[in-house]
Amino acid sequence: MIIVVIIGFSPSLIFRPVFKDTQLPTSLIIHGIINLLWFVILLYQTWFIFKGKIINHKKIGYFGFSLAAIIVIMNFFIIYMVTQKYHNGEYSLQAAAGLSLGNFIGYVINSVIIALAYFYKHRHDYHKRLIYLFSLSLVSFASDRIGRMFIDTGDVGLNGIIMGYAIHIIFIVALIIYDVKTRKKPHVISILGIFIPIISLSLIFYLLGNGYGEVFLNLFK
């Protein structure tokens, strides 16, 4: 996952001076650093479990949950920034509505996933798969940018959506294969992971198609 994140954010964040002349706002830089930090912690947590260092895993886990909460909260500020750019004439209605609604739906879904991961912290089979889904949802922002690297489809960004869904399915298939090898059948959380992007995209297109995108943007006037 972290490799996908590094590739996706290299042009816009990690190696931005090489690819772009403009600077990112400080809030977006902090947002990107926190997201990268999440994956660094994820690697450490996986290593602790592999080595059987459960106490270390639990200690770092509380910091990880705090970081996840910050990521979710900062996503709300990203939504606010997009809506303000629309009201200032920097984004078209289609682009702003798609970005803001997409982020908001992701905000809600990620909040539920990480809350469940905390609730099931003593149910290892549920906990680790929910953390996996939360991490995969963060990967989607990077995979969207990877899709946009190949073809510029303007405001719609269809190639980004396709790339994001393709990468999501690859990781979910890997999780299901792991389930079958370790427990002989797919876990319910793994199955849920298949439907999350379908539910998310269905909601986004339904809301946009029925004019709720502009309504949502106007809530932030």
DSSP summary, beta strand count:
0
How far the N terminus sits from the C terminus, by CA atoms, comes to 36 Å
Shape: globular
Uncertain spans: none
Percent of residues in beta strands: under 5%
Mean pLDDT: 83
The gyration radius over C-alpha positions equals: 18 Å
* Element-level helix/strand string: HHHHHHHHH
Class from helix and strand fractions: mainly alpha
> Count of helical segments?
9
Please give the domain count.
Answer: 1
- Please describe the biggest sheet, giving its number of strands, its sense, and whether it closes into a barrel: none
The residue fraction in helices comes out at: over 70%
Walkthrough of the structure:
There is one protein chain. The protein has 221 residues and is mostly helical. The chain has one domain. Helix content is 84%, strand content 0%. The chain has helices at residues 2-14, 16-19, 26-50, 54-87, 93-119, 124-150, 158-183, 188-209, 212-218. α1 (2-14) packs antiparallel against α3 (26-50), α3 runs antiparallel to α4 (54-87) and α6 runs antiparallel to α7 (158-183). The longest helix is centred in the first third of the chain and has 34 residues, at 54-87.
Topology:
Blueprint (H helix, E strand, L loop, with lengths): L1 H13 L1 H4 L6 H25 L3 H34 L5 H27 L4 H27 L7 H26 L4 H22 L2 H7 L3
Helix pairs in contact: 1-3, 1-6, 3-4, 4-5, 5-6, 5-8, 5-9, 6-7, 7-8
